[in-house]
Fold this protein.
Amino acid sequence: MTKNYYGITDMGRVRKNNEDAFIAEPVAHDRYILAAVIDGVGGYEGGEIAAGIAHDTLLAHLNKLQGDGDVMLILKRALAAANEKIYSEKQLSDENGRMSCVLTVAIIDMQNNQFYYVHVGDTRLYLLRDKSLVKITKDHSFVGFLEDSDRLTEEAAMKHPKRNEINKALGFDASLAIHSDYIESGQSPFLPGDMLLLCSDGLTDMVNAKTISFILSTHDELDDKAKSLIEAANDAGGKDNVTAVLVWNDKPSSVHETVRPAMAVADDDPDRKNEIMGSGEEEEIVVPRRRRKGGTGIVALSILCLLLLGALAWMVFKPTDSNAVTTSNHKQTDTTNAVSKRLQDTLNGATGDTMLLSSFGQSVVLNDTLLIQKDSMYIKGNGMTITSDSAYKGPAFLLAQNCKYVVLDSLVLDNFAVGIIAQSRALNLKNIQFKNCLVPLQYQSFLPAGQIVNGNIDSLLFPTDTLLKK
C-alpha cells in the first residue's frame, strides 16, 4: 500500500454493536490529513448516534480548512458544533437521553511536519518516535488521573473497576466554550519516521503500551500494524469495540547516526580490552588508570565540597542585582543557538496547552533561557536531556510572573548554574532530574527599591513524599 494513513474499527468479542467511529482521510483539498477516533457512550443506539453526529460534523467543518487558517481554532469550533448537535439530539429523544461521545482528533500538516490535536474523554493519542511510544493525551477520568500522575501503574489502571467512568465528553453540557480548558489541545513537530496512533479504550484496556509499541515498531505495512492491534485486543478478551487510526510521516529521515569519539584502551587492562574487542565495536575506548587511595585525595575532596557549598549558599542568598535574569530583560541575542531559538519560538507560538519537547530529540544543548509566559502549559519531555552550553551561565527555564499553572514532566536538566527560576507559585514538577545543577530551583521575588519592607520570607518547599524519597 502507498497511503501513509489507515483506520480500522472492530466490534470486539463481547459487544453486539459498534459505537466507535473513525476518520482517516485527506481534507481541505488534500492539504491536511484528518485523523479521528470517536467512542460513543449512552446505550445500545445512543452511542452510535452521538459518534455519527461527531463524525459528520468534523468532516463538514474541517473540509473548509484553508492552508493559512488557524488550525487549532477550527478544530475547537468543530468540537463545539458537534457538542451542540449531540446535546440538541438528546433533548428530542427519551431513549437516547444519556448519549454522548469521547474523541481524539488530529490534523497532520505533512508539508510543514506538524500535527495539531484536540481531545475530550478517554480515547488516546500516541506518538511513536525511534521505537519510543509517548502517550500525548490525558485520560479525562478519575482512574486516568491516577495513572497519569503515577498513583496507579498501567496494569492496575487497566484492571480498575472504575476504569471507564469518564468526567468529560461531548454532549454533557449544552455549550462548550472553545477557550476553556474543557478541550485538551496541543501541537508538535511530526518528524520524518514519526507515527501517530489514535485509538479507543477498547484497545488500551486490553493491550499495554509495551505491546502496542512492539507492534508499531515492526516492519509491517501500516494496515497490517492496525489489524495486529485489533487482533491483540480481541485475543486479550475483546471486551469493547476496538478502533485504531495510524498516520505515518514517510519522508526520509534526516537524522544521522551519532559517532562516538575514538578512544584508546590501556595496555595494562587486558580484561577491559577483551570486553571492548569482543563487543564488535571498532572504536577504541580509554579506561582511565585508577588512582591509589590516600589521604591527599580525601583532603582535596573535602576542600572541593566546601567550595561547592559556599558557591551554593552565595547563589541562593545573593541579593538581586542588575544582572539578574528577569522576564523583562530576557531577550534572545544573535549568539543564541538554533535549537534554543526553535524551542523558544515553539513555546511562544503554541496554540494549545500541551507541548512535547521530546519532539526536538532526546538531547539538546541550550545557550539561552527558555521563557515560559503562558497562563497554563503542560510541557512533556519523555526523558529528554537538556544540557547547558559550557559558556552559558543562565537558567534552563524562566517562568514569568503571570504563569498560573505550568507542569514540567520527564526532563533531565544537566550542568546548569540554575535549573529553573520561578517568579510565581505556578510550577509543578513531575519526574524531573537535576544533574550537576548548582541550584536546581530558585524562587525569584522582587522587592520595592528604596522602601522599608516588613514580613516573613515564605520559602518554597518540596512535597513531603519527595523529602521522604531523598
